[in-house]
Amino acid sequence: MAQRSAAIRITKPPDSPGSKGKQASTPPKEKELRNDKSQRLCRNITLYDQCRTPNCPFYHPPKSDQLEASSTTTVVESSPTKVNELKASHLQAPVFVPKASAPVFNVSPTLSTPALQAPRSPGPQLSHVAPEWNQESYAGASQMQHEYEDPAYDYDTLAAGAMYMPQQPLRPPIDYHLYTAPMPYVSNPPLGQNPLHSFFIPDDLRRMFLARLEALKWKPNVPPHPPPPAELGVYHDLVPLESVRPTSSRVYGHPAPVYRAMSTVDGNVYLLRRIEGFRVTSEAAFAALDTWRRLRHPNIVTLREAFTTKAFGDNSLVLVYDFHPNATTLWDEHLNQNAESAPKLPHTARRQGMPINERLLWSYVTQIANALKAIHSSGLAARALDPNKLLLTGKNRVRLNGGGILDVLSFDPSTPPAAYQAEDMISFGKLILSMGCEFYQPGHHPAQAIDHLERVYSPDVKNLVIFLLGKPGPYKTFDEVLHMIGPRILNELDALQFYNDSLEDEAMREMENGRIVRVLSKMGFVNERAEFEYDPRWADTGDRYIIKLFRDYVFHSVSPTGAPVLDLSHVITCLNKLDAGLDERLMLVSRDERSCLVVTYREIKSCIEAAYTDLRNAGDKLPTGAMGAMGISQRAMGSS
Ligand SMILES: Nc1ncnc2c1ncn2[C@@H]1O[C@H](COP(=O)(O)OP(=O)(O)OP(=O)(O)O)[C@@H](O)[C@H]1O
C-alpha cells in the first residue's frame, strides 16, 4: 500500500518562505527574525528561529503579541463560513475529519497573509482545543506554555521598568524544542556553524563501540580443534580467543587458553581461563580467590568464580573473569616487535611496537599503581605483573588481568603475603623499565636500561624505578610510591575529568537523538499503515491525514526546481518542535495541492498520540507483543 509521496507544491503560496518556498509559511514575525542576518551569528539560533538564552546578545524575549500569534486558538474563532467551504468532494482530497478542529483554507489567489493569522482567542481555551499530549515525555513543555502566560513573564512590563512584585521567583522558560547545543566548556565550534556530524557520535567513539560489539559476537572461521565442550556448567557457546593453541603460558607455566562464553544465569558474556592439566591438591588454595572475587576495581579484571572440571577430557581449573571485548594487552600493543608471534585475533587492531611517550607512560604507571594499592590493601598480591597480563581496553585504560591464578597454582601457605607484596614492588619497577626501554629483558641487569630511561624521560621516571628496584626497607612502602607519583596522579585525574565531560556531552546529544527516534517510531507506526480495524483508508483519513501531510512536510519537500530537499536541520527542528508540542503554526498542503491546513505542532502531536493510542489499545489485545520480544516496553515509547 505504500504510495509514492507527491511533492508539496503550493501554486500561489500565501506566505512562502524564501528557501523553503514550497514547504509552508510561518507567521511573519518569525520570518522577520529568520531574515535578520545579524542573528545568524548566534550559535543558539542556527537551528531555531530565535534565541531564548537569557544571557545571549541575540536574546529575543517573547513579546506578548507574538505569544498570542503562536496560539492555536485560531481554531475556535475561525469563521464558520470558511470552515464550511471545505468539502472533501469539492477538493477531491481524502476525507479529513479532524478530532481537534483546525482551520482549513482553500488555496486561492485571494488568500492573503493575514488570513493565516486568523483571529485568536484567549489562552484558557487552548487546553480545550488541543487535547492532552504526552505529558510523560516532556511535561516541562506544557509548563513552558503556562510560564509564558504567567504575568511574571510579561517582558514588556518588565522592560518598561514597571514596579512588579513577582509571585514566584523569575526564571527563564526552558525551550524543550531546541536541540541540545554542544556544551560550551567541551567544544567550541565557530559561531553560527553547526556541522552535520556534530549531531552524531564522533567517528572514533563509534568505531570503538562497533569493534566491541563485533568482538562480542566474533567466531573463528575454522572450527577449533579439539572443539570445546558445548556446555560447561552454566556456560555455553565457548569460543577460543586464540586461533593458535598456546603451548605453555610464559607467566603460569601451564597451557592457559582463554575462551569467551555466555552464561545461562544472566545472559552475560564472560572470559573463561582454563589451566590445562592442573589438579588442585588443597582446598585452602581457593581461600584467596574469595577475596579476589570481592575485589571490584576499575583497573582490575574482576574474577567471578573458579571451579575444576573434567569436561575438556583432563583435569582443568577454570577461572571466570569479566569479558572486555576487543581488549588487547600492553605487550601486544607496545612491546611485541614480532607481528608474526602475536596472537591473531581478527577483531583487534594491534599497533605493535609503538613507543610509549612520557604522558602515556605516567598514565599506565598511575593506573597500575592504583590497582596494586587496592590489591595490597585487601591483603593480596598481584604476583603476575607482566605486560601480557595487563589488558588495554578503550582509550589507554589498563586493567590487571588474571588475578588470583598464581595464588592457586603456586599455593604456599608458608610465605606471608607481605613477601609477595614486596616482590610486586620489584616487578612493578621492572615493568616500567620494560615499558620505557624496548631492549630490556626482565632477567637482565637494569643499569643500561636505566641510562636509557634517563635520556628519554624525565628524572622522575628514573627515580621511581630506582626506588622500586631498591632493597626492601622500612621506607619502601606502597604509600611512598604514591607520594612520589602524586603530581602525575593529578594529571591523570585532570585527563579523566576532561574525558568524562566530553562523554557527558555525547550522552546529551544521544538523548536528543533518542527523543527523535521515539517520535519517528510513533509516526512510522501510523503512516502508510495498510489497514487498521478492517479499514484500508485508516492511515489516510481523520487525524491520520494530518500526520501524513506532516510527514510530507518534514521529509518530502522539494525545491523550486523540483529537486528533493534533504535538509537535516529542517527535519530535526520540526521533529523537536513536534515532540515539545509547540503552539507554533505551520501550513500543510495536500498532495493534490488544492487544499491546505494550518495546524500547530501541538495539534499534530495530539493527532499522533491519539492514533498511536488506538494502535496500542488494539495491540494490547494480542497475546504477545513484538515490542516485548524486542525488550522495548510501550512505556519506553512514551505512552502514558
Ligand atoms: N578478560 C578478558 N577480556 C577480554 N579479552 C581477554 C581477556 N583476557 C585476555 N583476553 C584476550 O585474550 C588474549 C590472550 O590472553 P592471555 O592472557 O592468554 O595472553 P597471552 O599473550 O596468550 O599470555 P600467556 O603467555 O600467558 O598465554 C589477549 O591478547 C586478550 O586479547
Characterization of this structure:
With 640 residues, this protein is of the alpha+beta class. Among the domains are: 215-476, Transferase(Phosphotransferase), domain 1, CATH 1.10.510.10; 507-619, Helix Hairpins, CATH 1.10.287. 39% of the residues lie in helices and 9% in strands. A six-stranded antiparallel β-sheet has the order 2-3-4-5-7-6. A three-stranded antiparallel β-sheet has the order 1-12-11. Strands 8-9-10 form a three-stranded antiparallel β-sheet. A hairpin with a 3-residue loop joins β9 and β10. The longest helix has 41 residues, at 486-526. The relative contact order is 0.14. Mean pLDDT is 73; it is low at 1-166, 342-350 and 624-632. Adenosine-5'-triphosphate is lined by residues 241-242, 246, 249-252, 256, 258, 271, 301, 321, 323-324, 327-329, 332, 343, 345, 348, 388-389, 391, 401. The site of adenosine-5'-triphosphate has 25 residues, from β8. Pfam families: Pan3_CK. Residues 244-526 form the Protein kinase domain. Keywords: ATP-binding, Coiled coil, Cytoplasm, Kinase, Metal-binding, mRNA processing, Nucleotide-binding, Transferase, Zinc, Zinc-finger. Belongs to the protein kinase superfamily. PAN3 family. A zinc finger (C3H1-type) spans 36-63.
